């Protein structure tokens, strides 16, 4: 018969110096990796692709640029009218409109 005292063991571990070395790893993502991760999450959770997002972004930029161009043109026309000059868009030209089967001329 064995006793409980015989089944235990005592271990002592001692170190010469107590310096602790900590190693941390921070992965550096490249631009392509970040875009691929974002695109994959959007594809999974939102059901859209990066191509759709870039197309939407392109459309919004084009709309902004078109409105800006029209506003600049309108400002230039107002300045020309204020100076007594006539711009090409406000010159009096005969415009021909086709309505159903007859042609009518209108002067601006």
UniProtKB/TrEMBL annotation:
Lineage top rank: taxon: Eukaryota
Chain residue ranges for the region called Disordered: 79-108
Transmembrane regions listed in the UniProt entry: 44-66
Principal location class: membrane
An example Gene Ontology molecular-function term: sodium channel activity
One annotated Gene Ontology cellular component of this protein: membrane
Sequence ranges of Basic residues compositional bias: 89-102
Bilayer topology: Multi-pass membrane protein
Localization in the cell: Membrane
Name of the protein in question: Uncharacterized protein
